[in-house]
Amino acid sequence: MTSPSEAAPTGSEPTTLEPVKAEGDQGQGTAEYIGKSPGQLMWQRFKRDRAGVISAYIVGFFVLIAILAPLISKLYGKSPYTLYNSASGKPELFDALGYPVKPNGGISGEFWFGLEPILGRDVFTLLIYSIRTSLAIAIAVTILTVGVGVLLGVAAGFTGGRTDTLIGRFTDLMLAFPSQLFFVAFMPVITAMFVAPEDATPTWLRIAVLIGVLAALGWMRMARIVRGVALSMREREFVEAAKVSGASNWRIIRKEMLPNLVTPILVQGTFELPLVVTSAAGLSFLGVGLVNPTPDWGLMFSRAADVSETVPTFMFFPGIAMVIFVVAFNLLGDSVRDAFDPKAAR
What we know:
Number of helices: 14
Strand content: under 5%
Oligomer: single chain
Distance between the termini: 30 Å
């Protein structure tokens, strides 16, 4: 005898039927079965993954901090651009070399995370604005890489032939570039193309160039994943049926293929974003990304490396924040992947 779950219709994921007790005319319970969509099943699997749920809350907390950074700074009463070692600040909190006089980097009830050595900024507001800057750049780069990767991947996988060969070889060529060396070598060159040597580079231009360079060398992984899925999907029955019915290629891609590509796109996107955060921070650390006074995670690490022997606590807060964020986002990506996979067993 076939059970209700075994008799479910076939598809990308079988619909699960769960019994629901209903009251009959005589007050006796009768069993009815209600089907659940693949999205509902995915959500159920995700909710059972404790690590994924906790990671989602942590990531949401970071995103909330980034969005509310101006409000938090206003309530806190300090700005990441105020130099407290200047005459208009509180120079008595610093010694002659520019280091905080109080222990632990100047941590106190007034300055929760202490004061930045040399420049003399408040570390708490500097950190929350650094999270805001890094997440804004990472989200923009991730959107661009996902868009370009999906476009080229679907074009290569669905079309095949020469188009697939050309896009595949171009992708392999781009993957052969040493990314970090390319960033370090070309960031100053690209910036110099738009700004005269005697002029200071505007912050918006540095951010735009950083986003452009990171996106230009970050779409290849997404393109290869999407191409592989599209290549196997174009031989499936529902795609063949759409072709036989006379549907255009654009309609087949939009209505048949893209909905089935949501899973690999979403999973790969959750892995790409923390990679972009660390890459952008690395560029700023090396001096080819953002520069002071723009709040940035990489600049905080660069300053902390210079003063680590004298004020080791300055590295603690940005370091712990980045480790927590990257680990939480990677765990969230694993949980999303397992939730979309009906065969996953956690």
